[in-house]
Amino acid sequence: MSKKNITILCNVHYHQVDQMGVMHHSQYVYALEQSRIEWLLNQGISYGNLEKKGILLPVVDIAIQYKKPLHFEDSYLVHATLNELNGYYVDFSYVIENQQKNCIATATTRLVFVDGQSRRAMKCPDFLQNAFHSE
Amino acid sequence: MSKKNITILCNVHYHQVDQMGVMHHSQYVYALEQSRIEWLLNQGISYGNLEKKGILLPVVDIAIQYKKPLHFEDSYLVHATLNELNGYYVDFSYVIENQQKNCIATATTRLVFVDGQSRRAMKCPDFLQNAFHSE
Amino acid sequence: MSKKNITILCNVHYHQVDQMGVMHHSQYVYALEQSRIEWLLNQGISYGNLEKKGILLPVVDIAIQYKKPLHFEDSYLVHATLNELNGYYVDFSYVIENQQKNCIATATTRLVFVDGQSRRAMKCPDFLQNAFHSE
Amino acid sequence: MSKKNITILCNVHYHQVDQMGVMHHSQYVYALEQSRIEWLLNQGISYGNLEKKGILLPVVDIAIQYKKPLHFEDSYLVHATLNELNGYYVDFSYVIENQQKNCIATATTRLVFVDGQSRRAMKCPDFLQNAFHSE
Question: Quick check: D48 and B34 CB within 8 A?
Answer without folding.
Answer: no
